[in-house]
Amino acid sequence: MDREPFDHLWIHARLATLDTKVSAPCGLLEDHALAVRGESIAAILPTNAPEVRAFRGAVTDCGGKFVTPGFIDCHTHLVWGGSRAADWESRLAGEPYTEIAKRGGGILSTVRATRAMTEDELLRAAFSRLRALVAEGVTCIEIKSGYGLTLDDERKMLRAARRVASECGIEVSPTLLAAHAVPPEFAGRADDYVTLICDEMIPAVASENLAEAVDVFCESIAFTPAQCDRIFTAAKKYRLAVKGHVEQLTNSHGAELIARHGGCSADHLEFLDDAGIAAIAKAGTVAVLLPSAFYFLREKQKPPVEKLRAAGVPMAVASDLNPGTSPFASLRLAMNMACVLYGLAPEEAFAGVTREAAKALGRSNRLGTLEAGKRGDFLVWDVAHLAEIVCQLGVNPLTERVVRGKSDNA
Ligand code: NIG
Ligand code: FE
pTM of this prediction? Predict the structure, then answer.
């Protein structure tokens, strides 16, 4: 008996491949079929191709619906305890984010709440947030630690991150963000805390395989470039990727530092200058735009999107989901804001949560586009126009999610 070459075919689809080799906007292929074998995309063919017509296995007729790659949220702080609604009220009443941080609110108030919770409690708190992201198409997520700030509490967060992603059936890229804030027990001794990060936390987390990257908050209210440099040097010794929250509130030249270390992404970038753009362009570092944090902090300075575009820097878009500056469990909202607030074209927003986000997480070879050989992570959307996915919020036009070749409609 002849074995069928595929396990499952999705036919009559408008495939937004996001593959740069396909010249149409979003790499669109009209009336195509996507063939899955095992966990992978086996082929992309016109629906009327002989192989498609000869196929006798499982077929889903998309009836002209759009299909995109699974969305990748490449910057989140999904795991946390407590609430920062009171901080928000203070900000609305006029107190700046930096002042709230200096008086022990902000990140440190989340640290207190997170330290007080068990791994199971953190997992449960994160679960509903991740379910919301997954419901609108996220199939791979980066999750940072950074609210524990002791080795055990950071480990607890990273374990909760792995478990929550596995419970939701999606891939996780866990990141150690021990350099998020100076913990209270190290107040006035930031360099000693950095030594702890370099000498104990990074080696432990690397040896237990709890994180694949190390992140820093390089900012006037957090860590200096010299401290971040030490952390990146230690991270690379343990073969962990490096990235950073840089130029969010001021310009500390953190992006140049990331570029010098061959970092995978430089995130936020509102205050990025020309030297920073040139450095990340040369290093091939992805610029991760986080417009919902910009919106929620009522920031005024926008990242230099036009110059990044002109310099050919890949731009990803992420939710930055966190309790303080972006309490929004919606990547589509971030895409909408990237267009409305930052001037991205919808096509760039789609690339930002697929192809470029995969690059930011070092997963371009497996994820981010619809191409034969990539993983079978894709989304079927009931929209008449692709941009509707970004334009209209509050309704969810996602009709089918396929992860590792398996449909959740099956
Ligand atoms: O991405 N900038 C630092 N980190 C987060 C904020 C975290 C928080 O306020 O809890 C961010 O904006
Ligand atoms: Fe962040």
Answer: 0.98
